[in-house]
């Protein structure tokens, strides 16, 4: 079975190799194509629009539509039930496929209901602390020591309970031997409260707090990527800080209904790879604080299976009770 490290080490080569992918077959699709996302406008929506804007070889008109609700599951279900003709696709984090089955009692879809087309980008998570934590806390080791001494103040915020970010924070508390209290938020509320000193830390995508870290208003202690992030090169990885179990990336990817014919999937894949090679997409991703990350389709499917097994074990180890 493919491992996360196998895929990560091959990802850069896969992206450069996309220039070998045949150009999109025949003419662009003449009808309007819809890309559905599961959240209100933000990183995911912006990334989908960025890539879609350079996919003219696939369709004459591409519309990115947000279908928020049920933690993104409404959009996933809509694509599952759509015509398998390449006119409707899902753009989502991999967590919709490899994580949600372990945190929800019932899902109206399964990963097998979709064909994975291509990842487009990835981003590590950033552990950030604010003014609630003393200024002399400069490293993850310092922060763990402070949390042990100040258990009632050891709090971290994320965009919601039952997310991968929630579990990464819980994993840090378990690995370091302290009670790390989770405070769930919606939208950007966690960062706002972090700046105000209401909570001690956040576990969020890098883009959520990058500007505030660069300005010195917040302090970044660790990233979860397999290597240092180019957007915060001075910040060590969790592995470097002594917590290899926290290594994790969030991938964003395209999916189509499972019965979509292979020629259409190949045509869509070629259009996505062509978009990722454009200067517009490369520059736009840098502004969004994500890195281009294209994984070959055969490795992509195996990555989902491998990550699903990993997160299943993590969820079970924490004693989390799946919800509706």
Q: Could you characterize the architecture of this molecule?
A:
- With 324 residues, this protein is α/β, with parallel strands linked by helices.
- It is 38% helix and 21% strand.
- It has helices at residues 4-16, 43-52, 73-80, 95-98, 140-149, 164-176, 189-196, 206-215, 262-276, 279-288, 297-318, and strands at 29-37, 59-66, 88-93, 114-129, 155-158, 181-184, 201-205, 219-223, 249-257, 291-292.
- Strands 1, 2, 3, 4, 5, 6, 7, 8, 9 and 10 form a ten-stranded mixed beta sheet that branches.
- The longest helix is centred in the last third of the chain and has 22 residues, at 297-318.
- It is globular and about 65 Å long.
- Mean pLDDT is 89; it is low at 10-25.
Instruction: Catalogue the unreliable spans.
Output: 10-25
* Mean pLDDT across all amino acids: 89
Oligomeric composition of the shown chains: single chain
Structural shape? globular
Number of strands: 10
Distinct helical segment count = 11
Distance between the termini: 31 Å
Strand fraction: 15-25%
Radius of gyration: 20 Å
Into which percent range does the helicity of residues fall? 25-40%
Overall structural class, as computed from helix and strand content, comes to alpha/beta
Element order, helices and strands? HEHEHEHEHEHEHEHEEHHEH
Largest sheet: 10 strands, mixed
